[in-house]
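Handoff note, outgoing to incoming analyst
You'll be picking up this chain. Sequence as last confirmed:
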Amino acid sequence: MTTSKPLFMSPEHVDIMNTQLAASEELRASCARLPKDLLIAYRLVDEDTGAVHWWQLILSVRDCVYFTLEEPASPPSVTFESGYWAMLEGTMAQREGRPSTATPPKLIGDPAALEVMSETWGLAQRIAKVDVEMPTR
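Most recent structure output, in case you need it:
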């Protein structure tokens, strides 16, 4: 039986990642050590159409870690701004272990917040790894 892979950062992909994240006791313990709730937002503008895509990673002491595809309702701890296709190229390069040809995203917000969340964020990235199809231009 062949199963199709979800499209990267599609609602299906986000649901799978959130299920994996919610099941991790190790991640829950890491979240409990966070000094406060943190939000990483990605504001991605499609270089072809101008459409804005939002990705969020919420790191919560109480609710642990989860992704959404909505615009933030409150100010993020940090926002990465980039072109949509540039971000996908950077993601593919990281997954393939090669240097990216894309312009790095612009960081807006408190860079110190990245250090505060680094342990939990790194653990969440490993736990939420899913085999996906990447969108094509």
